[in-house]
Amino acid sequence: MAEGGIDDSTALSAAFVRDGRLDVIARNALGRALHAPMFDSPTTDERGRPDFARYHFLDAGSHDLFVDRDAGAAHTVALLRAEDGREPHDRACAS
Fold first, then answer.
1. Which of 3, 60, 70 is nearest to 37 (CA)?
2. Model pLDDT for residues 8-35, shown as the tens digit of each residue
């Protein structure tokens, strides 16, 4: 396994795995490099895990990473709403 939990066979492609709350739970080196500002952001959780939603809405630097920030915001909200509908009692998603 490569650093971050994704198999070395993906070494030529950027890869990451996220959960329904948009937390990045695994990535390879290229996936980390591609999203470096998010991984280095103070919006990471207490375990150092980045989260697309927290980064997108709470870090001003996200304006520089995302090409169409408004569309990204809409997609982020849609994904979180879908997760909330799938797991309506998940308190971690509500926080």
1. 60
2. 565 688 999 999 999 999 999 999 999 9
